[in-house]
Amino acid sequence: MKTRRIDNYGKINRDKILSFRWDKKNYKGFEGDTLASALLANNIGIVGRSFKYHRPRGIFSSGVEESGALVTIGSKDRRDPNVRATTQELYNGLEASGQNAFPNVNFDLAGINNYLGRFFAAGFYYKTFMGIPPLEWGKGTAIWMFFEKFIRKAAGMGSASGLPDPDTYEHAHDFCDLIVVGSGPAGVAAAVEAAEKKLDVILVEQDSLIGGNQLAENDFDNSQIKNQLENLGIKIMTRTTAFGLYDNCVVGLLERVTDHISAPNVNIPRQRFWTIRAKHIIVGAGAIERHIAFNNNDIPGVMTVNASKHYLNRYGVLTGKRIVIATNNDSVYETAHQLSEAGANVTVLDSRTNFEIETNKSFEIRKGYVPYNINGSKKIDSLDISKSETINKSETINCDQVLLSGGWSPAVHLLSHRGVKPKWDYNNACFLPSDTNENITMVGSSRGLWNKNDCIASGIAGTTDALNRLGISKTNYFFPKPGGWKNPIQPLYEVKYKKSRSKSFVDYQHDVTTDDVRLAHREGFISVEHLKRYTTLGMANDQGKMGNIIGLSLMAELLNKEIPEVGTTVFRPPYTPISIGALSGRNVGKHFRPLRVTPMHQWNIDHGAKMIEVGLYQRPWYYPKENETLSDSYIREASTVRKTVGICDVTSLGKIAIQGPDSTEFLNRIYSNGFSKLQVGKARYGIMLRDDGIVMDDGTSWRLAENEYFMTTSTGEAAKVMSWLEELLQTRWTDLNVNVTSVSEQWAGVSVAGPKSREVLNNCVDDSLVITNNNLPFMGVTSTFLKGNIPCRIARISFSGELAFEVYVKSDFANTMMDLLWANAKKYDGCLYGLEALGALRVEKGHVTAAELDGRVTIDDAGLTKMASTKKSYIGSAMRKRGVLKNNDREILVGFFPTNLKETFNAGTIVCEKNNIKGQGIGRITSVTYSPELGHWIGLGFVKGGLDKWKDTNLVGADPVRNKQMDLKVVSPHMIDPKGERMYA
Amino acid sequence: MIRINCPYCGERDHSEFSYGGDATINYPSLDASEKEWTEAIFFRKNIKGFQFETWHHSNGCRMWLVVERSTVTHEIKSVKPCHPDLQRVVENNK
After folding, report:
1. Distance of CA A227 to the CA centre of its chain
2. What pLDDT does A934 receive?
3. DSSP string of A820-884?
4. Are A248 and B1 a contacting pair at CB < 8 A?
5. What is the pLDDT of residue A338?
6. For testing the chain A interface, which of B11, B18, B64 should be mutated: the one with the most A CBs within 10 Å?
7. Which residues contact A436 (CB under 8 A, 6 or more apart)?
8. pLDDT of A197-208, one tens digit each?
9. Which of A171, A173, A248 to substitute to test the interface with B, most B CBs within 10 Å?
10. CATH 3.40.50.2020 fits A887-971, yes or no
11. Do A723 and B56 touch (CB under 8 A)?
12. Helix axis angle, A548-558 to A514-522, nearest 10°
C-alpha cells in the first residue's frame, strides 16, 4: 500500500520502527507517532463508523477534540474502548480496532441506517418505542424495555471488556505555588517568569511533548525550552491532563504513566490521579479549531486545517494530494503554504471577499467561495463549491481531501468548571473567558490570542497577575487584546444548501445534523440545555469541543437572536474522559474500604473462627467443628452457652472514657434513664435519644470512680456517639467540666456467658472473692487482675440472658486473656461463640440491636418505656412525645412464632392480617433465628398496636421476594426467662 | 475541594472534616417545651451567601469549629472553635 509518509518532515524517530495491528492486519509506524498518524501514513482512511447512521468516519483532528477516530485498544481484560487514536501514542505491538461496525469499518452491515436517516432524527427512539402508532401499540414502558437492548446495541460505541481490570492505579497529591496548565508559548512564558520570581511551579501538558501547538510548526525544537524549564526547577508533567478545577485552587490531574509503553513494568501504575493544591492556577489550554457544517462534511478525508499541519510537520505525513481548504479566517494560509511546499496541490476557498493576504502564489485562493457538498462515500471524490452569497452549483473540484477551519474556540472549559460563564466576542467569533475573583488566570489562545508574541506577553502578564494576587508584588501589567489576525474573521458556521437525503453534521460524535437542531427548535427545545439533551449535541467523549458553537449559532439564527443570547452550556469536569480505575485508585478489592480487626483477630482464626464483616470490623461469625455448617455451629454454640459457658469477642463495641467532675450530670442528660444515683462499682444499661426523640444508640456505662465512667456503645454507632458527645460538650454544654476520650482501640473485650461462667472466671482471676455474687452482683463492676498480674475490668453484664461477665484488658493482653479463659472454659465443656450464636441468644431474650433500632424507632416502640425517666429532662425528652410519635397505631416491638412450628421465616418478612396481604402490612420482622432453647424458629419485629392488640390473632408473614408465606403468631419479645432469673444467678 | 483552615491543625481538605449544621441555633434547655425544640430542630433558613455552620475535624484534632462559608462560592471567611473559652484562647494567641 502506498504510504503518505514523506521524507524530511516530522519529529518522529525514523530509526525506530514500531509494528502494530489495526483490525487484525499488521502495519508499521515510527517512534513518536500517534495511532492516528500511523494509520494516516498507512493510507487508512476509514477508522470507525458513526454513532447512529454507521457512516464511515476518518480522522478529523490531531488532538483531544477528536470525535471520529474513536477506537478500541488492547484485547481481553486490557481492552479499552473509545480511545482517541489522535492522542494514543504508538508502541510496539499495539493492537487496535475500529468500533461500531460489523463485520468491520470498511463494510458495515448497519450502514443501511444511513439510508433510513430520516427515521433517525433527534428523539426518534423515544418517540417511536414509547408506543408505536397508529394504535400506540405497546404504550407504556414495556415496549421501551423490550426494544432498548437492541437500540443500545445498534447505537453504541466500543464495548468494555466486562472483565476485572488487571492494571493498578494510584492516587497522588502535591502542593505548589503556581500550576500552569498547557505548555504552549503562553504557558511556558508564565512558568519561566514565575520560577524566576522564585515560585514553586508545576507545568502540566496533556501531550507527550511540551510545546503546545508549536509542535505543528516545521522548525520547532522543544529541547532548549525543556532544558530551560528544568534548570529553573519547574516540575514538568507530560502525558498529564488537568481534567478539572475545584474549590480553593485544587486541580485534578490524570497522568497516563504506561499507556504508551508496550510491556509496562507491572509494579508501575497505569495511571495516576493527582490532586494538586495550588495557590494560583494559570490556564494556557489553547484553542480548538472548528469545522463548518455542509452536506457530507463527514466523509473520510475531512479534517481541520491545523490537524493537517500537525500531521505534516510533527509526523511527516502528507494527508492529501489534492487538497481543498475551506476557511473564513487567516489562520490557514501558513498551512496552505507548507502543504503545497510538501507537494500537495492546494486550493483555498475563503468565504471572505475583501481581504489581503501575502502568499508566494504556490496555491490558488478562491475569494468569496464556500464548499457546499462533498461527493463520495468512503472517500472524497470531489467537492462542490459555490460563491458564498447565493449557493448554487457552480463548480466541482476534484480532490482527495477537504480541510476545514470555521474559526477557533478558546478552551475555556477549566474556567467554566468554576462556574465562570464565558462571554461572546463578536470580533473573533468565539467565547472568551470572563474574569474571576478566584486565583485563576487564563493566558494565550485560551483567552483568544492568535499570535505567538501576544501569547508570550500574556503568559508573563498572567504570572504578574498571580504574583499580585498572592501579595508578592504590586506590578502593573496588561494583557494583549484578543485577536491577532490581519483580516477579521467572517462568521461561517453552516453552508445552507438543501440536497435531498444528504446530511450536514454539526457534531460528529453523536451524528447530530443541522436538521436535528432545526427539529429541536420546531419542537420547542430551544434552550441550549434542552437542545443538548434532545439532540445529544455536545455530549460524549469530545463534549462538543468542535461542534458546540455551530449548534449554538444555528439555534441563534432560528430564534433570530445572537449567540450570547442563546448562551452556552456549562462545561463540567472532566475535560477529557477518565478511566474509572483512576478514580478508584487503590481503593479496590480488599482495599475498597479500611479493614478493622480486633486484637485477638488471629487468635480467633487460629481457633477456627469463620469471620464476618460488621461495619468495617471483622468479627467471629461462628466456630465450626469438623463438618458443621453455619446453622449446625451456631445452634451448638448457643446451646452450649445456655448449658455451660461460652466465650465471645466483643471488642468491636465502642468504648469511651468519660472523666471530670460533671461526668454524672453529663450522662444524666444524654441517657433517657437516670444516672444520677448510679453507685461507684456499678454499671447501667442506658438509651440515648436524638434531639428529635428517636433512639440513637444503646449501651452501658460503668461508674469506675466518683468522676470517671467507662461507656460502651454499639459497634455500628461508636463513631457517631463519640462525635455527638464531643459536639454537646464543645457547642451546647460548654460549662460542663467533662472530657471524653475514645478508648475503643485500647481495650480488648470478651463476654463470658453461661451458668458456668463464674466458675471459669474463678480460675482466671487473681482473687476469686471479687467476683462472688455478693461482691459482684448483677450490673456490678470491678477493676481487678487476671492471673499473671494482668489488670482488667469486669462487669456483670448479660446480653445472652445467662449469668455473664464482660471482661476487658488492655489490647496488648488480648491473646493472653483468650488463652487463659479458653483453657478454663474447656474444662467445663464450654465453647467459643460467634456473632450468629450471639444473635440467637439475644433474639431469644428480646434484646434489640441495630436491626431494630434503625433510626425510626422510639423508646416506646422498642418496648423500653420504663427506660424513659419521668423525673428528669434529657436529650429527646421533649420531642419523644410529639404528635406523630404518640399515635396509637405505631409499630411496637414483639416476638413472632410461626403458627406451624416446623416452618421458617426470614428477616424482612412483612406482617399482614389474614385476607389482607398487601402493601406494607401491619408490621415487619427484623431479626430471626432458630431457637435452640425452644426448638423452633423465632423472630423479633414490629407490629402496629403491639402484643396486646394481636396476641390471640393469627397473622400472615408475607415474603414476596423469596416467594414465601406463613402463618404467624405474635408473642412477647422476651421469649426465654422473662423474669431474668438466670442473669441474677 | 473546600479547604478549611483549622485553628489547631492549619489548612486541610474538607474530607478530613464532617459537616455539622447551623451554628447559629441556640438549643433550648432540656426542659423547654416541645414547641421550642421543634423550632430549634426542624426550622432552618436556606441561606444564599455566607452562613455560620459547624464542622467537626473528625479525622484531625476532633474539635468542633464554626465556619463562615458562602453557600454560593464555598469561600470561607472565618474559622473558629465552637467552644467560647477556646475561641478566646485562639484569639489571644493570634
Report:
1. 38
2. 95
3. HHHHHHHHTT-EE--HHHHHHHHHHHT---TTT-SSS--TTTTT-GGGS-SSS--TTTTGGGSGG
4. yes
5. 96
6. B64
7. A415, A418, A420
8. 999 999 999 999
9. A248
10. no
11. yes
12. 40
| Position B5 pLDDT exceeds 80 | yes
> What pLDDT is attached to residue A130?
61
Q: What is the CATH number of domain A167-287+408-478?
A: 3.50.50.60
- Which fold, A1-161? Ubiquitin-like (UB roll) (3.10.20)
Please spell the DSSP secondary structure of B1-29, one letter per residue: --EEEETTTEEEEGGGSEEEEETT--PPP
Fold of the domain spanning A601-652+746-840: Gyrase A; domain 2 (3.30.1360)
Interface of B with A in 1-20 (CB under 8 A): 1-3, 13, 18, 20
> What are the strands, taking DSSP E only, across A306-452?
322-327, 345-350, 364-367, 369-375, 382-387, 395-398, 401-405, 408-410, 423-425, 430-432, 440-442
pLDDT digits (tens, 9 = 90+) for A702-721: 999 999 999 999 999 999 99
Q: Do B1 and A873 touch (CB under 8 A)?
A: no
CB contact under 8 A, A734 and B34: no
Residues of chain B neighbouring A881 (CB-CB closer than 8 A):
34
Closest CB to A875: pick one of B30, B42, B83.
B30
Measured between beta carbons, the chain A residues lying within 8 angstroms of B31 are 873, 877-878
Torsion sign across C-alpha atoms B38, B39, B41, B44: positive
Non-local CB neighbours of A354 within 8 Å, separated by 6+ positions: none
B36 lies within 8 A of chain A by CB: yes
Is there a domain that residue B63 lies in? yes
Contact A730 B31 (CB under 8 A): no
Show the cell assigned to A696: 440513637
Pairing of strands A617-622, A80-84: unpaired
Whether the CB of B63 is below 8 Å from some CB of chain A: the reply is: yes
Fold equal for A167-287+408-478 and A291-406+488-497? yes
Query: Does residue B87 lie within any of the structural domains?
Result: yes
**pLDDT tens string B6-65:** 999 999 999 999 999 999 999 999 999 999 999 999 999 999 999 999 999 999 999 999
Identify whether B86 is part of a domain. Answer: yes
Regarding the domain delimited by A291-406+488-497, which CATH topology (the fold level of the hierarchy) does it fall under? FAD/NAD(P)-binding domain (3.50.50)
Is the distance from CB of B7 to CB of B81 less than 8 angstroms?
yes
Scanning every residue of chain B, which has its alpha carbon at the shortest distance from the alpha carbon of A871?
Answer: B31
Q: Into how many domains does chain B fold?
A: 1
Residue A942 falls in which region: left (phi positive, over 0), alpha (psi -120 to 50) or beta: beta
Domain, as residue range, for B94: 48-94
pLDDT at B94: 79
Q: How far apart are the C-alpha atoms of A408 and A410, rounded to whole Å?
A: 6
Structural fold of domain A656-742:
Alpha-Beta Plaits (3.30.70)
The dihedral through the CA atoms of A451, A452, A458, A459 has a sign that is positive
Which residues of chain A fall short of a pLDDT of 50?
1
Nearest residue, CB atoms, A732 vs list B3, B27, B31: B27
Q: Is the Cβ pair A726, B64 closer than 8 Å?
A: yes
Q: Which three cell numbers stand for residue A537?
A: 449535541
Q: Where along chain A do its domains lie?
A: 1-161, 167-287+408-478, 291-406+488-497, 510-566, 601-652+746-840, 656-742, 887-971
Please check whether residue B34 touches A, CB under 8 A: yes
Of B34, B62, B86, the CB nearest to A878: B34
- The H-assigned helical ranges of A240-393 are 305-313, 333-341
Q: Is the preceding peptide bond at A661 cis, omega within 30 degrees of 0?
A: no
- Is some CB atom of chain A closer than 8 A to the CB atom of B74? yes
Which residues on B lie below 8 Å from A878 (Cβ)?
A: 30-34, 36-37
